[in-house]
Amino acid sequence: MDFEKQLDELFIAEKDIPAEFALPQELHQNEYLCNGEMKQWNGDIHTVLSPICIKTEDGLKRKVIGTYPLCTEIEAQESLDAAVQAYNNGRGEWPTMSVAERIKCVEQFTFKMLEKKGEVVKLIMWEIGKSYTDSVKEFDRTVEYINATIDALKDLDRQSSRFEIEQGIVAQIRRSPLGVVLCMGPFNYPLNETFTTLIPALIMGNTILFKPPKHGTLVHYPLLHAFKECFPKGVVNTIYGRGNNIIPPLMQSGKINVLTLIGSSKVANELKKQHPKVNRLRAILGLDAKNAAIVTANADINSAVKEIVLGSLSFNGQRCTALKIIFVHQSKVDQFLSKLSAEVNALKFGMPWESGVSITPLPEPNKPAYLKECIDDAISKGASVINENGGITKESFVYPAIVYPVTADMKLYREEQFGPIIPVIAFNDIEEPIEYLIESPHGQQVSIFSSESEEIASLIDPLINQVSRVNINCQCQRGPDIFPFTGRKDSAEGTLSVNDALRAFSIRSLVAIKLTEENKSLLNEIVNEHHSQFLSTNYIF
Questions:
Q1: pTM higher than 0.85, yes or no?
Q2: CB of 153 within 8 A of CB of 104?
Q3: Phi, psi of 231 (to 5 degrees)
């Protein structure tokens, strides 16, 4: 079958969607969670269109999944007030609750979340076009992350359950919450990456103001009742609406203590500037990245190609950790491009529910046009699309394109394409990719491909101070979640991992007292009678 015909048959009629993957009905969300109540919304709404197009008598149309509220600054302020009141300057029920009790609440939430797995997985697939298999993985990995966070907090609390005595002072050092957290996650991992900040912020005793991503909003709707039922009122509050309308006033209020955003550095910079008390604001940010791969003359090309295809095209390249520019030694570039083209062309493309599918439709409506602009710009400046059918578009679907040779005057050299384009550059001197990483405003990760230990070592030392993670003979990635995930320069602020996240959303605090006989009796009475949640030797098993 020729490629044009394959593209024509890519999207199907609604009646042909396999029943087990179809949404039972459109999901029209007309409520939001604020101050422990599911409040009704009768105002403007946003219609959610799937990246999956449906064949109709009038041609291809993006399938309507449902709607969600377009709330205003008024509703956002109500949610902020609820979070502020629930925190109550650290005196609220949630921030003063024992660690064991907070863990129990999160465990209850996880149990209720598992009951909604089927619904949430389907919404991930339909709302952002992620394959069904990967949507299941995202849900399962999120549950694993929550359980690992609970275990890590138990560990941390056990370490803090003892008193320390130094220079005549006895003290107990624990971690305490920071306040109100504004949490905004990304569309590409709308559940997992949102929860890798929301859950640790929550379990450490902070109260939450949560804005779901523009693409991936409905994914969270089935979980709102679980938040309502498992946490005290005002601890978790959702806000909906146009971000540029509702977020600035929240920041300008000065009542946000922590900003957590996974998105663009431009947005993060603007939001931070709007806060009137910058010294009170902590930011946990996952931002732009332009991760490079360096394929040296000593690389195993077959192995490098397999990892680079995974690294650059998993979920259509829509990952901050994706490989977004490839440097290949001139002596290996022809061989590399030939094998890379064959590997890319062997990938299965189609609808997200198809078994083994790798390339699926893109959720952002303007993304196909932007990717075409990047490819056209490169071609006009001397590059070519190397692989057959590379860059061909059908509505929301873009077939992966290998673009070579990319040069410094092209968009693809600096801009983060966040889509299925693989820019390739040939180099003769290893200083060329090193200089690229030094000059880059991004500093998340790099992948080095080589079979020579001395060569690898010579690259590790200059690059580890430019990026936060050097991957050897493998793709860039976030996991395992126990490892630190961060970036230098404009790529991140703060560090996330199961353990680091707990520390990021809390501060070390201590109670100290002079070691006298009278004070010993005082401490023993407080501890033995369980008068304080903070000053305690309770041991969580």
A1: yes
A2: no
A3: -130, 150
